[in-house]
Amino acid sequence: MNAFSIFRRGMRGGPASAHGDKLRRGRTEVDPKADTLQGMKIWTNNAPAVHANADECFALCLILPESSETVLHLKQIDPPPDTTEAESFTIDPEDAFNANIGIEVDKFPDIGLLPHKNCAAVLDFLKQRYLLDLIYTTADPLLIAINPFKDLKNTTPEWLQLYRDAPDAEILAPHVFRLARTVLERLSAFMASQTIIVSGESGAGKTEATKQIMSYFAAGKRGEVSHQRIQNAVIAANPVLEAFGNAKTVRNNNSSRFGRFMQLQLGEKGGIEYGSIRNFLLEKVRVTSQEQHERSYHIFYQLVKGADDAKRRQLHLLNLEDYTYLSKNGGCYDCPGIDDVKDFKEMNKSLRSIGLNLDDVESLWSIIAGVLLLGNVHLESRETDGQPNAAALTPDGEATLQKCCALLFVDEEAVKKEILYKVKTIGDQQIESPNSLSDALMNRDSLAKAVYEKLFDWVVRRVNATIEPPQGFGIFMGMLDIFGFEMFENNSLEQLLINITNEQLQKNFIQIVFARETKLYYEEGIGNVKITWTDNENVIKALCGKSSSVLAILEDKSLAPGGTDEAIVTSMNQALKSSDVWKPGQKNPRICFCICHTIADIQYDATGFIEKNKDLLKPELCSIVQASSNNVAKELFEGVVMQKGKIAKGQLIASQFMRSLDALLTLISSTESHFIRCLKPNETKNPHDWSNGKVLAQLFSLSILEALQLKNLSFSYRRPYADFLKQFEQLDLEVTRKSGNAKEKTKQLLTRANVPQAKWALGNTMVFMKPDAVRELTQKMRLIVVAWEPLIRVLEACHSRALKMRAIRDSVQWVVRIQSQIRKARVIME
């Protein structure tokens, strides 16, 4: 039985007990034989307060005198016991966790510096820092960022300048700016591509963290930016992509409903020279329907609320509550913290900044209005050609379709025909027959979703046309901003693909941070170091293995004649019943199934899986848009080849998604990765609210507690000997510039620099150092540079003076020659 199954079995026992033996991994044990046991304070997950409220997870308790080696007698002190709880209680020593008593949390920016790093101690430590608005903490190699749900005024230009210009950023508090500077310095020092992966669940603050890092990269040193126009386009792309791809959900007012990977080429003096954006997995279904208390994409509300009277008439705009696509499930038209009217004005400026001309912008707004109005093209059932439930337009539907087609720049009659009719080929004959009402509605909604998705892709292409480097990327800075694990009341195919993405990213993280670390130590021969970690290989195999996996079964049933959603679940139950990450659905086992994900058990409803997986636009409708006379409209499906007939293997939504994901992970694996783990402290979205159970689950699911094991290994710096000697060449020129073995020279340099032996180790091909040893050497280098700076300035001044004198001498020579020629001319003239 592995840690995953223990984790799942304990879910009914509360957030702390849910993690079983994972609670004890890496713990600092309480020694029941210790002489100082009496009066000691410890954490336990078996206290009365935890039994009364499972979300407490742990309670701080005092060990009483009657305790023994086998039984601890405790008195609960935090939270204070109420009058109904016993004065004392007993626990097994196995349920005790050491506490960090008397520490000042603001003096410990790195969790690895804590005396005790068990899950209870770390949870309390992060809570105390959060309550002091210290939302950034390091857990090497991670940066932890907790969503404060308020503006802390700590990302202003003044803060950015502080982190950018500080002689040594390591002495400053943890911050996204500090990470951005570190990554930028590594890119420059080692000439190797870097990637920052920002992850966390929805509402944890990933999008904000990404924007802050972008602002740091965009800030040229002392205002020097060589490609201002391109940089402006890169920065302007962010609000545009948010408007098209972000929406209000029940958990997040500005939730990214797509993933994006950005490549940036940064200038020597700072600033962004070029860039590129990859977008994937836009949640198309949100265009036509939303869950209760949720909104569609921000761009719709910006247009309807922000357009002036003239534009409202031009685009046939209605009130928000009159749009069918926006008013399902009660409708939600406002969003706290978002000003749609103001954002509309800014959006028009941003669209110009990314490279669109006025005609493009007008066409874009028209298409958005057309997509929105498609939901109001009402249809009904009529008896037509002997078919009792044939689809037909209502009288108001006819008028609305006319307006829609004008806004979308497509032929009305052609669209009407393809929505209402289908053509079957029998032998050499093509027979046209009416669609059923459900099929016609599906055609209408598929057109709306496909046009919106392609418009989003078109915007990204236009951004890239403005910002991409003409010769492609060499060394680049990568940034991945992607949705976190999602677990809603109703989870469908969209959530399944999102969660598969996060499982793959978790696997990537494990391989980078743990597996590679262990392998490297072994290969370099620097000690028998063993790291224990929890992998998610079983989850990956069950979700997207080549055979007998969720996606494999979904593809087979989607391609099979007469395949149904219930048949998918039936096949899954048969193929995966022996897997420890699979469970039958609790709501309705015939149509629901449950996957034991890294973050939690998540139940999916397979209703609509096949339809969503086949969600391809009718080829004839695609051709109609391609034939548009409007430049923007006809470019939407440019290069898209729509095949009539059967869907081929690989055309399905899930198949396309996996290809994109595999390509993304391959690109990320070719870079040096850095990680920001964003935590969501509560579900209330209120500042200083804290849920122990929610945060504890994230500490496990994001591998934060496991990553702390790397701190015990100490050697976070590792570089080939040649690179090390080049980096610290100026530290000891006598050693670094002499001939000889690079490993031996490295040893001499470290010894002569008085770096304690315990802070470094020499492997077979590279040197390993603790972080404080690197800081010590870097500081010594800076002192050397500062000491030599006056002489360097004198030498530069002398060199500059010499160049000026040479220029003067050359000028004098030319003057003498000119004077000579003038005298000759005068003699000739006389």
From TrEMBL:
Gene3D superfamilies recorded: 1.10.10.820, 1.20.5.4820, 1.20.58.530, Kinesin motor domain, Myosin VI head, motor domain, U50 subdomain
Gene Ontology CC annotation, any one: cytoplasm
Renumbered residue ranges of the record's region Actin-binding: 661-683
Positions bound to ATP: G200, E201, S202, G203, A204, G205, K206, T207
Coiled coil: none
Biological process according to GO: actin filament organization
Annotated InterPro entries: Kinesin_motor_dom_sf, Myosin_head_motor_dom-like, P-loop_NTPase
Keywords of the record: Actin-binding, ATP-binding, Motor protein, Myosin, Nucleotide-binding
Domain Myosin motor: 106-782
Compositional bias (Basic and acidic residues): 19-28
Region (Disordered): 9-28
PROSITE patterns recorded: MYOSIN_MOTOR
Family: Belongs to the TRAFAC class myosin-kinesin ATPase superfamily. Myosin family.
Name assigned to this protein: Myosin E
